[in-house]
């Protein structure tokens, strides 16, 4: 790799590490295949390693596929951390956080796979739509909607639009 190319790669890695820092507020927007899911996954892993309760972390994405991919990547990394050699775990945690992990952090990282598996309901990694739907189901009166509302899919919506048009035209 040429020196200019290496500098670009180094800058990208540094930007991703900075965006992965859960103590900063960031907006991640980039083209497909540029590492958005990696950045978000690293943010979640950093939060977990730092001692945050998996039940208190929520990740919102636009698509079900992205949510599933994040869940898969997190599970894979946590599973790996529970079994790899100490030296390899130390390197991975250093790459993740940019700091040398303490013995406590190493132990925490090893236990995270089990901790996340035992979290009631699992980690909250879902689409924005699913999150909003769960809020509306929990607080229907505050949202002024029927308590047992049903979401319409695109097909249902189109059928209702056709029916509404027919009703309007029939009354004209």
Count of extended strands: 2
The residue fraction in helices comes out at 55-70%
| Share of residues in strands | under 5%
Summarize the biggest pleated sheet. 2 strands, parallel
Work out the oligomeric state of the chains in this entry: single chain
Poorly predicted runs are none
Mean residue pLDDT: 89
Q: Given the helix and strand composition, which structural class is it?
A: mainly alpha
> What shape does the CA trace take?
elongated
Instruction: Give the termini separation.
Output: 71 Å
How would the blueprint of this fold be written?
Elements: H1 3-20, H2 36-49, E1 58-61, H3 64-81, H4 86-97, H5 103-117, E2 124-127, H6 128-138, H7 154-171
Parallel strand pairs: 1-2
Helix pairs in contact: 1-2, 2-3, 3-5
3D architecture notes:
The protein is mostly helical and 172 residues long. It has one domain (3-125). Helices cover 62% and strands 5% of the residues. It is built from seven helices and two strands. The chain has helices spanning 3-20, 36-49, 64-81, 86-97, 103-117, 128-138, 154-171, and strands at 58-61, 124-127. Strands 1-2 form a two-stranded parallel ribbon. Helix 1 crosses helix 2 (36-49) and helix 3 (64-81) crosses helix 5 (103-117). The longest helix has 18 residues, at 3-20. It is elongated, with a radius of gyration of 22 Å. The model has no long low-confidence stretch (mean pLDDT 89).
């Amino acid at each position: 790799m040429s020196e200019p190319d290496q500098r670009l790669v180094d800058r990208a890695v540094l930007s991703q590490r900075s965006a992965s820092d859960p103590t900063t507020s960031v907006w991640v927007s980039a083209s497909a295949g540029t590492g958005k899911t990696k950045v978000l996954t690293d943010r979640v892993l950093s939060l977990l390693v730092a001692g945050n309760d998996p039940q208190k972390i929520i990740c919102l994405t636009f698509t079900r596929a992205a949510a599933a991919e994040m869940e898969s990547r997190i599970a894979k990394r946590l599973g790996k951390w529970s079994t790899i050699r100490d030296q390899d775990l130390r390197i991975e945690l250093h790459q993740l956080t940019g700091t040398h992990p303490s013995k406590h952090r190493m132990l925490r990282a090893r236990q995270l796979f089990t901790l996340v598996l035992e979290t009631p309901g699992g980690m909250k990694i879902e689409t924005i739509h699913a999150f909003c739907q769960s809020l509306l189901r929990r607080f229907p009166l505050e949202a002024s909607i029927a308590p047992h509302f049903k979401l319409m899919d695109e097909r249902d919506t189109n059928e209702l639009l056709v029916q509404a048009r027919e009703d309007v035209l029939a009354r004209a």
